[in-house]
Amino acid sequence: MSRRGVLGGAAAAGGLAAAAVAGPAHAGPGKGAPRATEYVIAGAHVLSMDPDVGDLEVGDVHVRNGRIVAVGRHLKGRGPRIDARGMIAMPGLVDTHWHLWTTLYRAMSSTSPATAYFALNVANGVRCLPSDLYHGARLSLVDALNTGITTVHDWSHNLRSPAHADANLRAHQEIGLRGRFSYGTPQGFPTTSVTDLDDIARVKEEWFDSGEVPLLHLGLAGRPPGFSPESVFRPEYDFAQELGIPVSYHANSTRAQGDLQMIRQLAEQDMLGQDTQLIHALYTTEAERAAVRDSGSSVSISPWSELLIGYGVTPVPEMERSGMLVTLSVDTMSLVGSADLWSVLRLTTGLYRGIAEQELAVSTRRVLEMATIDAARSLGLGDEVGSLTPGKRADVVLVRQHDVATAPVTDVPNTLALATGAENVDTVIVDGRFRKRGGRLLDVDAARVVRETEEALAALLAR
């Protein structure tokens, strides 16, 4: 079975119907899925990613009302015992930067000048209807759920109207993963014009303050110095500060942007801090890296997209050793094709060791931290998810140890970072709800999602 076989092959149990883009608010995810308020995941090899909790060769995870109550051996609790023997229990993966809407035209980039990534985004983006953003985001979220990603950062950079923003958010409301929705400017939008600040305020009130998407928080997908003038980046940043929402910038991605020292300019503008995330940042000076580290900002790298678009080889050792908070992402399906964050773990491990010219330069456990606990911290969710810690929300993944692709398991972190793929993910739990079990999505009609996305793309290309 291919890595996408589960997603594209069969309609999953539960058959949750897709919400109409212009229809009323959806009841939310989880319909048809096991909904026990208390249960114990029993007999797994527990990789907690919490040094205080540690790892258990045979252990249990006790969950009540969506929160982890205890992690240990022979735990007692009301409700069912979920047999997890032969599986690895770990926190759900956290992707820190993903343009969800571009999954509408997966793997379409890089075959000609017309399909070069940025040209393709504009060509397709300006023709996108609100429903197109819905379909692209919905397929992304289902793909994420299938592969074991329980938290996403939707860097939504084609919000052409309030209706587009609403359609994009309806996909989140329907599928129900955790994460951040960063409001961005539409494709082809002038770099000299300020984004629609009024609509950001509307979205905050109607979607986030009202609790319509309870597992999401709002952010700003901004444009940094060097990309836009101060008359644009300053009011956008100040508005985000007034609303109390985090900001995210693509910065120092290419050599040319590195020469502009966009991150230095952000520091000089006092725009770095714990609520500031930087994307790519491949070409940075030592002073810029120190400024990022000392400010508490984080960096999201996406090694596959950075290679495939020709930015260069991601300098993982230099970035990580500087003390910056470095996290991982898949970025965009139109360019990289696969939402399998497990492959990003492998690539990151290989880049780190290859650039360092040292096999033992980094452990796979350290790379796993970049996609779990560190990633959660970077999105302001470190107290909620990212590790199997009593008191945190129950975002849990169970990986099969006895599959052809994973057996025999000799070192659990190595197996996860080097051997695992979406097809080995047996169970995915988001906020205590079982969303995938026995390798099958429980409450999403995957075949229907795929079919409707393909129909939407055909209509887009016809336009």
From TrEMBL:
Residues 88-433 form the Amidohydrolase-related domain. Gene3D superfamilies: Metal-dependent hydrolases (3.20.20.140), Urease, subunit C, domain 1 (2.30.40.10). Keywords: Hydrolase, Signal. SUPFAM superfamilies: Composite domain of metallo-dependent hydrolases, Metallo-dependent hydrolases. Residues 1-27 form the signal peptide. The keyword Signal applies. Pfam families: Amidohydro_1. The keyword Amino-acid biosynthesis does not apply. InterPro entries: Amidohydro-rel, Metal-dep_hydrolase_composite, Metal_Hydrolase, MTA/SAH_deaminase, TAT_signal. This is Amidohydrolase family protein. It comes from Nocardioides aestuarii. The lineage of its organism: Bacteria, Bacillati, Actinomycetota, Actinomycetes, Propionibacteriales.
